[in-house]
Write a structure and sequence with these properties.
The complex is a heterodimer of chains A (about 375) and B (about 230). By secondary structure, chain A is of the alpha+beta class. Chain A has 15 helices and ten strands. In chain A, strands 1, 2, 3, 4, 5, 6, 7, 8, 9 and 10 form a ten-stranded mixed beta sheet that branches. Classes of the chains: A alpha+beta (about 375), B alpha/beta (about 230).
Chain lengths: ~375, ~230
């Protein structure tokens, strides 16, 4: 037998209590890791973006359109190696309440700008050839049970009417920051169906040298400063950050809820540890009478709290990490693609586990180590 | 030669505003190799005296020396290590850890030694053999009778080969047959293994098995009976 075996035997004295306390810690730490991951994933997304891509949008807000004529002028700016454009379509499929992202993009230039979007070559050629066709993310295909070649009707909101598309291609994403749940079709089709009334919502620029970004932004915005559609040009990363900024204080709220859950569990665990220690007061006296020192007896109590908290943390945070790494929940991925537990969340959870162990185990440990043998032996359980 | 030397020991407790004097200038020697029974009515200070000899409690004044070490002057940490080496303690209520088997309960004091697993195993089996519980070593306390529990407690007390075995009312919770078996075992430990034993008891029959009987009354040693066997 070892002292570790003694700790284990004490934990197994009330199996259900130990199991439920461990489960409480596991659930709390799972929630903490998950809730905190909303913030960290948003942060990671706001950092995402190629240093060689920029976005040009309306200076007032992204909802205001730009003008198609800008494309040629943008391409002429020194340092700009490629231009593409897109527009938010905002159509719904079958049920107005069911949402997924759908855009009109300029196919050839868009795919050239975004090598992260991987389309099988044969399908890509099919899509580029058919003006009324769409390329759809594999997750969305799976969700609706669509197949390549199928006709899909979207109901326009910004551009009213029924819009029929043939799915010619599917895409996967080489990065989790770009979701696989979007529906993209040709801008030319939008332009044609709206009698050339559609305007690009934003432009994408590929720049030859990332260091030129500030100069190019200033040049572009200066070019259109006095036009009807003044622009705001920014790096893709800054664009992403402004998009993520729309979530506002959600991350603060999530973190606060996560910490509140952990605090509640601290009280539960502390109570369970105190109860367990009180029940064994006479045994503390016996161990001391046998020759176990004050510190050893205290450490045994602390080790019990540590075993419960660390096991719970391992299950909770480990479970959250594995779950969000391997399973994509549509409701989350739709708004926060690439949702997963960040490494710093794991470290913070470890620090919380250590604090939980100390706070919940320290009181019974100190009580056990400081109690005189005679007092402990006289205790009536 | 005295193994235990108690010199001018005062012991008092504070209960609320009341000071209770248990001993005043108590002086006593316990010889090495003796089997001493400590008798007296409740509240006479028997258990307090036993606790002071074991280093579980401290005198208010005076000195307690056991095997040449001044127990009353040791720190808490020193006392724990000293107890592990020199004292085997048996309680009236057995005080076995219910989550450990008889074997594991007996092994507990050996965790404080530097013995290997094999050496510990040998010692535990010898100790359980001495008390006649070789066939019960995997049983848990709830699976043992009162007599078997107390014999396990004695095995735990002797496994580290202590200098002194102290017993606080060891027959208090046992029936007559189990008491006799236990007292026979203690006598054997004293005669055959030359263990010095001090036993607190209310039971005059139990005290008859001892070589020396000391009577305590209101903290005073009122009578010394020396029986040579």
């Amino acid at each position: 037998m070892t002292r570790g075996r003694l700790v284990w035997a004490n934990l197994m004295r009330h199996k259900w209590r130990t199991l439920l306390t461990t489960a409480s810690v596991a659930v709390a730490m799972f929630l903490f890791a998950t809730l905190r991951s909303f913030g960290t994933t948003l942060d990671a997304l706001s950092q995402w973006g190629s240093a060689n891509r920029m976005v040009v949008r309306h200076a007032t807000a992204i909802v205001f359109p730009l003008q198609m004529s800008y494309a040629q002028r943008l391409a002429a700016v020194e340092g700009v190696a490629g231009v593409s454009w897109a527009n938010w379509f905002g159509g719904w499929y079958q049920d107005p309440k069911v949402f997924f992202a759908n855009f009109a993009v300029d196919g050839p230039s868009f795919l050239a700008l975004y090598p992260e979007i991987v389309v099988p070559e044969e399908q890509k050629q099919e899509w580029l050839r058919d003006r009324a066709s769409a390329v759809v993310g594999v997750d969305l295909m799976e969700k609706y049970g669509w197949r390549v070649g199928q006709n899909v009707v979207l109901n326009g909101t910004i551009f009213p009417g029924e819009w029929q598309f043939t799915i010619r291609a599917t895409y996967t994403s080489a990065t989790r920051a770009f979701d696989e749940r979007s529906f993209m079709f040709h801008y030319a089709y939008l332009d044609e169906r709206t009698n050339h009334q559609a305007q690009p919502g934003w432009f994408y620029l590929r720049i030859a040298n990332g260091d030129d970004a500030p100069r190019i932004a200033a040049t572009v915005d200066g070019m259109f400063k006095n036009s009807n559609s003044p622009t705001k040009t920014m790096t893709e990363q800054a664009f992403q950050a402004s998009w993520m900024g729309m979530f506002g204080n959600v991350r603060t709220l999530m973190n606060a809820i996560g910490l509140a859950v952990v605090f509640a569990i601290l009280l539960v665990t502390g109570n369970a540890m105190m109860m367990s220690a009180r029940e064994r007061t006479r045994e503390v006296g016996t161990l001391k009478a046998i020759g176990f020192g004050d510190r050893t007896v205290g450490l045994i109590e602390l080790a019990e709290a540590g075993a419960v908290v660390l096991t719970g943390t391992l299950l909770g945070v480990g479970g959250a990490t594995l779950l969000w790494k391997n399973i994509r929940v549509a409701a989350i991925e739709q708004f926060i693609p690439g949702f997963q537990v960040a490494t710093n969340t794991i470290w913070i959870s470890a620090a919380i586990a250590l604090t939980l162990t100390l706070v919940s185990g320290l009181v019974p440990a100190l009580r056990a180590s400081r109690m005189s043998v005679v007092t402990a032996l006289r205790t009536v359980e | 030669m005295a193994l235990v030397e108690i010199r001018n020991v005062d012991k008092s407790f504070q209960r609320d505003s009341q000071r209770i004097d248990v001993f005043t200038a108590l002086t006593l020697d316990i010889a090495e190799g003796s089997f001493t029974a400590l008798m007296g009515p409740s509240g006479s200070g028997k258990s307090t005296l036993l606790n002071m000899v074991a280093g579980l409690d401290r005198p208010t004044r005076g000195t307690v020396r056991v095997a040449g070490s001044e127990v009353s002057a040791m720190t808490s940490g020193q006392l724990a290590a000293w107890r592990a080496r020199h004292i085997g303690f048996v309680f009236q209520t057995f005080n076995l850890l219910p989550v450990l088997s008889a074997y594991q309960n007996v092994e507990l004091p050996l965790l404080l030694t530097g013995l290997s697993k094999k050496e510990r195993d040998e010692r535990v089996k010898v100790a359980l053999g001495v008390v006649g519980l070789e066939d019960r070593m995997e049983h848990y306390p709830r699976q043992l009778s009162g007599g078997q529990e107390q014999r396990t407690a004695i095995a735990r007390a002797i496994v580290a080969d202590p200098t002194l075995i102290l017993l606080d009312e060891p027959t208090g919770q046992l029936d007559a047959k189990s008491s006799q078996e236990l007292l026979g075992l203690l006598a054997r430990l004293n005669h055959e293994f030359k263990k010095t034993i001090v036993m607190v008891t209310h039971d005059a029959h139990a005290a008859e098995r001892a070589s020396t009987t000391l009577h305590l009354e209101k903290g005073d040693l009122v009578e010394k009976g020396m029986v040579t066997r």
